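Exercise 3.2. Students should predict the tertiary structure of the chain below and write it as C-alpha cells, then compare their answer with the key that follows.

Predict this chain's 3D structure.
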Amino acid sequence: MPTYRDEVVILRTHKLGEADRILTMLSLRHGKIRAVAKGVRRTSSKFGARLEPFMVADVQLYEGRNLDIVQQADSLGAYGARIAEDYDRYTAANAMVETADRLNEADANRQQYLLLVGGLRALAQGQHGPRAILDSYLLRAMALSGWAIGLDGCTRCGAAGEQEWFVAQLGGLVCSSCAPAGAPRTTPGTRDVLRALLRGQWDIIDAATDRDLASASGLVAAYAQWHLERGIRSLNHLEGLRR
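Answer key:
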C-alpha cells in the first residue's frame, strides 16, 4: 500500500498498548486522518513530542487497512508546550480542536486547516485574548461549513436594517416581529464585536469593552452549540476565560 505526506494539526491522541498512540489529525490535503504512531510513548522516541495535541507537523504516513501508520514527523509549529503552560490558552485550544474534529468529517478543506493553524498560532503567541481568538475561530469555522451567522438584516423574514434580537435557532439577528419571547436583545457594541469576530477585525475586537466582549462570547457559544449536532464539551470549561 502507498505512502503519502501531508501537513497536519494533531487534534487528539489515545493510548494504544504500552507504547503506541492513535492520533486524530486534521490535514491540509487529505481531510481528517486517524493513524497509529508506534513507540511514541517511549522516552527514546525520536518524534513523540512532535505528535502531541495542538502541534503542527509534516508527516509521512503508510496507508493501512483501518488506520494509517506514521512513519516520519517533522515539526512545523511547536505550539503545544506554549499553549499547555497557560490554562486559558489550553482551554480555548481544546474547544478549537474539538470543533475542528466535528466540522471536518467529510473531504479535505484547505481553508479549515489554515484557519485552525492560524488560531493555534495566535494562542501560542498570545496575540489576543484567548476567548476572543476562540470566538473568532468558531464563527469563521462554522461559516466555512455553511453555517454563517446572520448579522445583517433579519435572518427569518429578510427585513433590512439593523436588527437587535439574537436567536441562535434562527441563525443570528432577527427583527422584533420575528423574535420569540425571551430572546436576548443586543447592544450596538455587541453587534459590532460579533461582526468583527466574523471578519477578523482585531483592531475593533481589542478596543471593545469587557461587557461587549462577554455578551458577544455568550452568543457565539449559544450559536455554536445549537448548530453542531452535539454540544462542544470544552465550552463548559470556559466560564471566566480572559477575553
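Discussion points: The chain has two domains: 3-78, 81-237. The first strand starts at residue 3 and ends at 16.
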